[in-house]
Each structure stands twice: as C-alpha cells, then as structure tokens.
Amino acid sequence: MSVPTAVIAEDEPLLRAEIRQILGKLWPQLVICAEAADGTEAIRALREHSPQILILDIQMPGANGLEVAREASGKAHVVFITAFDQHAVAAFEQGAIDYVQKPIVAARLEVTVRRLKERLLGPPANLNGIVDLLKNIAAREPEYLKWLTVPDGEELRLVTTGEICYLQADNKYTSIFTPAAEFLLTSTLKQMKEKLDPRVFWQIHRSTVVNVSAIQTIHRSFRGALEIKLKQRAELLPVSATYAHLFKHM
Questions:
Q1: Which residues of the chain have pLDDT under 70?
Q2: pTM for the whole structure
Q3: For the chain, what percentages of helix, strand and coil (3-state, to nearest 5) are there?
Q4: 153 and 58, same structural domain?
Q5: Domain range for residue 22?
Q6: In this structure, are 136 and 208 located in the same domain?
Q7: Could you tell me what percent of the chain has a pLDDT over 90?
Q8: CATH number of the domain where residue 164 is located
Q9: Contacts from 87-90 at CB under 8 Å and sequence distance 24+?
Q10: What is the side-by-side strand order in the sheet with 208-211?
C-alpha cells in the first residue's frame, strides 16, 4: 500500500501545528506534504501535491474552506475542522468523511484517523451537495470566533472571546488584552476583526478594537476627545473622531 499523504489547511498557525503534532503521534506513517494558511494556498497545494487526505478548516481567508472543499470533491478524502456545531453536524450527516470540532481533542482526532484509514480503501466522496448545504447555513447565520489559542510561554492557552477586553495592532501582529494578561498573535488586527462578532467588538481607533461588554465608562478628556475606561484594566483607550458616532446614544 502506498504511503498516505495529507494537506492541512488551517489559518491559525498554532492550531495547524497542534493538528500536525497530534497526527504525527497517532499516525506516524502519514506524510503531511503541505500546509496552507488560507484557501488560495490550499487550492494550490491540492493541485500541486494531489494528497489523498485534506484536513480543512471551513472558515479561512482568501478562498474560503467551502470553495476549497468543492475543489477537493472526488479527489481527496476531506476532514472538516470547525468551531461550529451546525456546520459539523450538517457535513457529517450528509456523508462527509468526518469532522473535528475546535478546540482539537486528541481522542476525537484518533477516531478520525481510524475512519480515514477505512475510507482510503475507497474513492473520495463527492462533496458538492455538502458544500451547497453549508453555504446555505453560513448565509443564514454568520458565525464568529468563540475562542482562540494563544502562545503562553512554552504552552498554548485557550482564550474565549468573552475574556478579551480589547485588541491592539502591533505592526503586522495583534496584541490581545484580557483582564490579567497580554498575548501576541501572528494575525493582523484587520484579520482578527473579521472573525469577531461586530455586535460585540467595535473598532474605536484604527489600531484598537474593544469588547463592548468590557467597557465601564466613556468620558471626554480635557482636550475634548472620547476615552474609554475598562472594567478590569487600568489603561484608558482613546476613541478617534472617526468612531465617536458609535457612542452618541450611550
């Protein structure tokens, strides 16, 4: 039997590394021939490497995961990675190979490995019907991040979006501030903002996005500009004139 090959398509680098590490322990014979950080890279990797398996995040920048799944239809055995129940259940019930929900649990990935080994004995499934179903679900109900993994020393820490007080641009990175800590992510502020619920996370400055529920008071500085005082952090956050209208009824 030929050596099984796979592509991992996941835009969170820490999660991508975690998946690769767990798979390395559970299935050492599996060759990860490429990794992709967005949908465009994933499609390129599919065409270049023709992997037998595609481990695919449903929501990615660039060409989204559903477009990638359509490209992979009938060519690779697909495992959907998702943070959202309805996506996962719909894909599973319609006959997709498998799904793994975030946060990744090694025991669940072990089940996926077992199923993949069985599926490799047959041809990859046609995913066009599943893709159409998932597109309809996504169009009806936009989904946003509920949690993310962040580096904490030599470990990874899970932070829920409810813990985030605010996010701040740091060159091409983003600093995330919780009540008691600060973490640095390798995504830009624009990329992070697109993944967060706009009803909860408001941009108040070109370099700052705040969790509305973390706000204690809004007041004017002696120069007349708006400033935000947070419930659980000491610093004051300036509101630029561009975003002052967000608070006119508060």
A1: 1, 62, 84-97, 137-143, 249-250
A2: 0.64
A3: 35, 30, 35
A4: no
A5: 5-140
A6: no
A7: 55
A8: 2.40.50.1020
A9: 87/58, 87/134, 87/137, 87/138, 87/143, 90/130, 90/133, 90/134, 90/137
A10: 182-185, 173-177, 166-170, 208-211, 201-205
